[in-house]
Amino acid sequence: MRLSELLNRKVVSESGERLGRVHDVRGALVGGRLRVTGLVAGELGILERYGIGTHGSGGPGEAKVHGHPVIPWERVVRVGSEVVVRDESPKRS
Amino acid sequence: MTLKNVLAVALGIFAAIGGFVDIGDLVFDTQAGATFGFQLLWVVVVGVVGIIVYSEMCGRVSAVSERPVFDLVRERAGFGAGLSTLIASEFVNLMTCAAEVGGVALCLKLLSGLPYRLLIPLGVLGLVVTCWVLPFRWIERVFGYLGLGLLVFVVAAIKLHPDWGQVAHGFVPGSHSGGSLLVYLYFVVGILGTAMGPYEVYFYSSGVVEDHWSLKDLGLNKVTAIIGYALGGTLAIALIIVAAVLFLPSGISPQFLGTPALAAEHSVGQVGLLLALVGMLFAVGGAAIETSFAGAYSLAQFFGWKWGKKERPAAASRFTLSWLVIFALAFLVVMSGYDPVKLTEYSVIFSVVALPLTYLPILLVANDRAYMGESVNGKLANFLGGLYFAVIVAIAIAAIPLMLLTNGGQG
Amino acid sequence: MSKVTEVDIALSILDHQLVDSDGQNCGKGDDLEISGLDGDSPEVVAMLVGGNAWRSRGRLGRLAARLSGNAVHVPWTEVDSVTSVVTLKRPATELRLNRGDEHWASIVGKLPGS
Q1: I need a labelling partner for B5 at 20 to 30 A (CA). Which of A80, B21, B406, C37 fits?
Q2: What is the ipTM of this complex?
């Protein structure tokens, strides 16, 4: 699948909660390969679409990341017309 | 100030002269002086500050990232929005280039007496050969410094002994007398539009990369922007003063480019006329080159092609073809016989409408710490940048209605 | 253990400039091919450059794609590093990039001094 086809897909949890749309894909550059490690989803403000205020890292000479929360790939159940992810497990006290 | 720095300022002067005293200014500024006297002088100052703010920002972004601004438009806004911006700016570039080419032919006619229609192809050929043969730095220097012949208008303005009190009054924005409010506002939009043209910032940012500026050149960037555009603004002010003194009382409407030049002759004699015409030729010619290159830069930078005068023409063949094609299309537009002065007015008004699209990415990227590191906008740059962005949006909305309502400033 | 660098792909790679091993521009990252999305460890296998890579980039993209030829698939193994640009390991010609410049050079090259 192409990246452009994955971007903007709706993301829902197994319990039906709407989690926004995919607006980026987190990857890891290791050993000459680019593995997909997660999805960046949620509502994106206008300024953030231009990369402002994302509290990301990276500078003029480096690769960049948003500061947004990432859904790790392990939570993804399937990628269909929507992306379905496992609910976050409730914290045990 | 080392010699290298003095010559480096040539980029700023070239960009400013070509951007600030091109055919749009020559037309709008003399018209403004002839219609409203000194009452629009404050608009020039507003325009100068605006273009300094955005040029400095744009130069800083390009020096720090070592990439031109148009790369960033696509990276940030994506393919669709970037392509729309590209199409809009190419349309405006082409119109403006055609206006400048028409202006070059008019200047050549005033200098040589040869027929206008013959001078259109000769003028375009001259421009193309110059761009082909000269390296980027020499284009900057030749056109930038010879364009300074326009300084004769400053001399003329002083020698005409205007009422300096009234001149000073013109720097205060406010009420005007004589002439409708709508026409006055049309000139406000026109003067701002011709001061802050979109092609200027694209050309400047690509020029920064062509000249290999980097982080250590940020100070030079500031100086270049300020000196270059302050100089351009001074010339614009001189044009308005000269037109106000000579044309307002008699009610002559300077529809023809020759009139400002004759104004120079009136106060400085034959030498003045020659300097004015040579200055106009190289300022307008420089602007023609800027617009055609700005178009080629934007196209190449959107698609990721090799670009720049630094490459051999055949090595960056798509870039080379782009600027050649823009000159060719401009040539065709001018040969169609459309009135060059009217073409100029339309190109300025359409540039104004495209301004927000151009300037917004610059303002946004200049604030992105991940891109700029420590060189992000400070409070002053953001305050001025934001203020001017609001001004740009306002004039972009008002431009076409004002043009229609005032019948192109005729009232 | 190899160094692991995190990167947000749409922010850092998509629509960014590609530069070959000689430092020459050779197009933009117009799209990326990801495989293994139905499994545990999907990965980016190729970059798509030019032509009908624009097919899925919106309405204007579809129009642009129709006017162009085939996209070039650059396997991810050809990528050397990701900074503000994506640098490739080999010259553009070996990767079949910048064919546009080669194509038009035959015309531009006929002019003197090119």
Answers
A1: B21
A2: 0.91
